[in-house]
Specification:
Layout lengths: L3 E4 L4 H12 L5 E4 L7 H10 L4 H4 L5 H5 L9 H10 L8 E4 L2 E4 L12
Keywords: Arsenical resistance, Oxidoreductase
EC number: 1.20.4.1
GO molecular function: arsenate reductase (glutaredoxin) activity
Length: 116
Amino acid sequence: MTVTVYHNPACGTSRSVLELVRQAGIEPEIILYLKTPLSRADLDALVSQGPATARDLLRSKEKLCAELGLDKPDVTDSQILDAIAAHPILLNRPVVATPRGIKACRPADTVLSLLP
């Protein structure tokens, strides 16, 4: 099973998710998204895999989210994905992609639903 973890090593939840994936016997592909930001096309591809939505991928606790007005209910998915592409810190971490779909895995045990 191919598993990709969009990882921020400074985040405890992201480290916990990575450990849960490894405990399942899977060595995931790790994307350090702050060093290698996702393009808008990458983000579109992730959302198309579901079940995560553009809003699920948005780190709403990030101060920049409110500064950009992304926390308002009328903000479109397109606007959210544009903002995440422009400001990778807005990606909710960690995001995990498997053949079962993608999710922002907060809390960490959310990842278990994506694993065999």
